[in-house]
């Protein structure tokens, strides 16, 4: 267990020592800050009935940052180890392949949470626009839960893509392509006229899921989908690492 936490701390430190990670953090905060600024302007004008969390967590800005951020955060996890040759030392260390994969994954999730942490200030700022009306913490909490679940699943996909190659750019491109297929594939739920197809696509539709989370509705189906999807991708990554370990 101590070896696992050592690897976890190593991954977190690698993020905070990487200039690319800081660039992506700045990119995320600037885009989301711009989205919040637009929302604050609308509230300052006295417009009522604005779905606050939907404007933040179900907007173009949220999805463009998520689809861009995840491939960049995960592309180096295994690809850089292979390129630099440190993967052999890591794989021969007294730690299981599963522990290595989980440590890298939790390192990415931890940094993802760290990127989101400053946005908690939005809640404090929103109180100044609420004119004494208490904020409904339900939609706020469920929105952050939805962002975490989506991010956890997408990061697991990115980790798998990084384990497939030694080239970080290739890993990022493949991850971005898979995320786009998964994300835009969910739009079938809005355009198909076949009820069965719409119900199936709606189960995979991240846009519909975040819309419900932003509304304050926590359905067990998307929760199970993202947790099981992340677990499946982690399992596939472990098997991929094990299969290439002996080549």
Q: What does this 3D model show about the protein?
A:
The protein has 247 residues and is mostly helical. The protein is built from 14 helices and no strands. It has helices spanning 2-16, 19-44, 52-57, 60-74, 79-84, 87-91, 97-116, 121-128, 137-164, 168-185, 188-191, 195-204, 206-215, 220-245.
Radius of gyration (Å): 19 Å
- Classify the helix fraction into a percent range: over 70%
Give the tally of β-strands.
Answer: 0
Structural class: mainly alpha
Q: Main sheet?
A: none
Proportion of beta-strand residues: under 5%
Provide the low-confidence segments as ranges: none
Can you give the mean pLDDT? 83
Key descriptive features of the protein:
14 helices; 247 residues; single chain; globular; mainly alpha
Give a short overview:
With 247 residues, the protein is mainly alpha-helical. It has helices at residues 2-16, 19-44, 52-57, 60-74, 79-84, 87-91, 97-116, 121-128, 137-164, 168-185, 188-191, 195-204, 206-215, 220-245.
Blueprint (SSEs and pairs):
Elements: H1 2-16, H2 19-44, H3 52-57, H4 60-74, H5 79-84, H6 87-91, H7 97-116, H8 121-128, H9 137-164, H10 168-185, H11 188-191, H12 195-204, H13 206-215, H14 220-245
């Amino acid at each position: 267990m101590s070896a696992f936490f050592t690897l976890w701390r190593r991954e977190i430190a690698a993020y905070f020592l990487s200039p690319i990670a800081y660039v992506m953090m700045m990119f995320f905060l600037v885009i989301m800050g711009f989205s919040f600024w637009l929302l604050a302007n609308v509230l300052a004008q006295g417009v009522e009935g604005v779905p606050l969390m939907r404007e933040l967590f179900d907007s173009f800005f949220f999805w463009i940052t998520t689809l861009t951020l995840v491939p960049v955060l995960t592309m180096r996890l295994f690809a850089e180890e292979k390129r630099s040759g440190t993967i052999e030392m890591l794989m021969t260390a007294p730690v299981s392949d599963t522990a290595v994969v989980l440590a890298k994954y939790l390192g990415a999730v931890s940094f993802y949470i760290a990127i989101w942490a400053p946005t908690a200030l939005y809640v404090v700022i929103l109180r100044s626009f609420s004119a004494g009306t208490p904020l409904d913490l339900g939609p706020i909490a469920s929105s952050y839960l939805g962002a975490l679940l989506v991010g956890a699943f997408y990061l697991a996909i990115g980790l798998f893509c990084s384990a497939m190659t030694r080239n970080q750019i290739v890993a990022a491109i493949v991850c971005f392509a898979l995320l786009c297929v998964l994300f835009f594939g969910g739009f079938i739920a809005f355009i198909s006229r076949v009820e069965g197809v719409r119900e199936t696509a709606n189960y995979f539709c991240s846009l519909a899921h975040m819309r419900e989370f932003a509304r304050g509705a926590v359905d067990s189906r998307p929760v199970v989908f993202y947790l099981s999807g992340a677990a499946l991708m982690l399992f596939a990554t472990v098997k991929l690492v094990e299969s290439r370990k002996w080549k």
